[in-house]
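Async update (no meeting this week)

Hi team, since we skipped the sync, here's where things stand on the single-chain job. The sequence we agreed to prioritize is pasted below, unchanged from the tracker. I ran it this morning and attached the output directly underneath so nobody has to dig for it. Comments welcome in thread, and please keep replies under the output.
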Amino acid sequence: MKDRTINKFTDKTSGILNFADLKKLRYKLLYWCMFALLFLVSLICLLPTLWVALSGFKDVSEMYAVAPTLFPKSFDLGKVKEVWEKVKLYKYFKNSFILIVGCWTVDISVNGAAGYVLSKLRPIGSRLIETAVFWSMLLPGISMVPLYMTWCDVPLIHTSLVGSYAPIWLMAGTSAFNILLFRNFFNGIPIEYLEAARIDGCTNLGIFIRIIMPLSKPIVMVVTIFSITGTWSNFMWPYMLLQNSGKEPMSVALYLLSGNSSGLLENEYMILLFISVIPMIIIYAFFSKYIIGGLNVGGIKG
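Output:
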């Protein structure tokens, strides 16, 4: 019987180790050393989340025991329901859902349209616009101050958008990184499809909606994952723009509930932290192949 390790590499001809390398003993040892190292790194990454999850089911005295233990003496799943009802987490999850849907819609439509213009329409000055989009990624964080002042008093209409989701939604449509991702992917779509659609009388907007986007499901999925995870973990802008408005998402709620005034015990707050991680665990579990694929999508020749 062939070595199972070698069987897994029968179609592998590139990379650090390939099928021919694993026929040699020293490379087999190197393979298992790399495997052990990656397994150890995975445990280190998972340990904080595991510690938070298990600590939530401990009593407060057990959490601060001099001889710390990993597993609690007893599991009471009713604590999760108690924390959910005590904090009214459904409100913060609803706010996060509204924020994510709005950011995703603007991200896909605006950044996708910008990538389409730079890739296929290419109006006069498009090369200069491309350069400006790329350079905008190099702007320092000090740009947050004038941007916040802009939302406090929007030019021309002279009104404040603080306390609403609109500023965060609009900022999702100005991602230079996503614009370049869309542009690079659209460059790989044959121009013949667009020319055939124009012959049939389709407008540029119609081509974008009916031709480009249906052919761009891989990049749309990748940007969707980036948008969801980025919006869920976004703390600074929601905290600055939505605080005390009743529209705070989960990321801001975790900070606001961390003080003694929230009435949460230490173990209850641990449960709250673990609940906030569950949606992202689900996202990465079901869409991991698209996340890994995004590394290749961004490298398409433009």
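Quick observations from my side:
Residues 257 and 264 are 8 Å apart (CA to CA).
The chain has 15 helices and no strands.
Reply here if anything looks off.
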